[in-house]
Amino acid sequence: MPEGPSIVILANEAAKFAGKVVRTVSGNSKQDLQRMQGQRVRAIRSWGKHFLVEFDGFAMRVHFMLFGRYRIDEDKIDRQGRTTAPRVSLVFDNGVLNLYACSVKFVEGDLDDVYDWSGDVMADAWTPRAARRKLEGTKQTASICPYCAVGCGTIVNAKTEGGRTTIVNIEGNPDSPINTGSLCPKGAATFQLAVNPLRTTVVKHRKPGAADWDTETMTRDAAMTRIAQLYADSRDATFVEKDANGKLINQTTGIFALGGATNDNEENYLIAKVNRMMGVVRIENQARI
Fold first, then answer.
1. Residue among 83, 85, 70, 87 nearest 17 (CA)
2. Is the model's pTM score more than 0.70?
3. Using one digit for the tens of pLDDT, what is the confidence trace for 106-144?
């Protein structure tokens, strides 16, 4: 997954396309990619995890997923020697930009009105003064990075205004004996996990075998009822009371429980207890917080 520094490297490598006209557009993204056809690139920029291709009046924002990749002037070849279809491919007179396994959105208007460049530590516009001003009036809370099993300490700065608490910054905790304030690129971008316009804020449903999400969203109660029913159906269909020798085992092998790193110890404890109570024997847990 390309992180902050990698995105800056990508922006530097793709800088040669700034000022050039997009001659051909293709890709398997569901966005209206053809709107970039014939448009001149004003600038290639980055902000945190976002790779930005700026045009007149709008920009293409790219957020790479877990296996996100990019290629410049070449295709991506898989292990079987096959050419991988890009999410977006932009052809210029001086080269080709291919983007893979990424979320693509269009940002309308001027990027300077959307992004605070001084808040990105990887940006040239970043200043310590702006960073300190951003933290004024915030409350600091010690936490743990939600990613790998190292468990690096973080400090979460949050501000409460009008009864609403908002996270404004997440950085390494210098008092942590594990990381002494340092964070890897992924951990350093944790803020964008918590505060991100790409996060889904409604419950979506996709029917079995369907390629697209349903047009109508679900209520939380309906979603929980659906999950509970499918869970019960799977348990009933695969539950084994006794083995071939008549030994009482009361287990189901049709369900695999995965505890995420972003769950805290108490949540994962309850997840494990409930699943064991239901006879689930395949349980993976990654609680650290």
1. 70
2. no
3. 999 999 998 888 777 777 877 788 778 878 889 999 998
159 CB-near residues (< 8 Å, 6+ apart): 137, 138, 139, 165, 166, 168
3 state SS of 160: strand
Outline which parts of the chain fall under CATH 2.20.25.90. 138-194
Tokens representing residue 273 in the block: 């207890």
Helices (H), ranges, 2-95: 4-13
End-to-end Cα, the chain, rounded Å = 23
The structure tokens listed for 204 are 């979506």
| φ, ψ dihedrals at 108, nearest 5° | -85, 145
CA-CA-CA-CA torsion sign (225, 226, 228, 233): positive
- Apex 134 CA angle, 168 and 131, nearest 5: 110
Residues 169 and 189: their CA atoms lie apart, in Å, by 10
Q: Mind giving me the DSSP string for 185-250?
A: HHHHTTHHHHS-TTS--SB----TT-SS--SS-B-HHHHHHHHHHHHHHHHHHHEEEE-TT--EEE
User: In the structure encoding, which two tokens stand for residue 176, read together?
Assistant: 């942590």
Considering the segment(s) 138-194 as one domain, its CATH architecture is Single Sheet (2.20)
